Amino acid sequence: MKQTKPAPIKSEIDFKTLEKVDIRVGTIEKVIDIEKSDRLVKLVVNLKPRKIMGELSEAMIFDIGYADKITPVLAVPEKPVFDGARAG
User: How far is 50 from 8, CA to CA, in rounded Å?
Assistant: First the structure.
């Protein structure tokens, strides 16, 4: 893989703001592609509901690479943990 220069680090946030972020582990059992979209798939978790391309969105997959314009990969725990285990 071609090495690229790392993106600049984003601005600092305080710990109380970080505690608001709820990142959890889950098993993907089914993925449904959204017609006319090259990056949306249908999954449901707990984000504030919002309509995207006519579908109700309540989740986001935590991937690595998309923001840096490389093929994304999923962030995966190094050993098995239960669904719903929290990051952080």
Answer: 29
